[in-house]
Amino acid sequence: MGITVEVTAHSSTSGAQSPARSTEATGNVIRLVIADRQAIFRCGLRSLLNSNRTFRVVGEAADGFETMDLVRRRKPDILLLEPSLPKRSAIELLGDLKALETPVRTLLMVRSVEKNVLVDAVKAGARGIVPKESSARILNESIRTVMAGNYWLGVEGTAILVGAFRELAAHSNGSAKAMPSVKLSPRDLQIIERIMAGCSNKEVGQELSMSERTVKYHLTSIFDRIGVHNRLELALFAHNHSLSPTD
Question: Which CATH superfamily is domain 23-152 in?
Answer without folding.
Answer: Response regulator (3.40.50.2300)
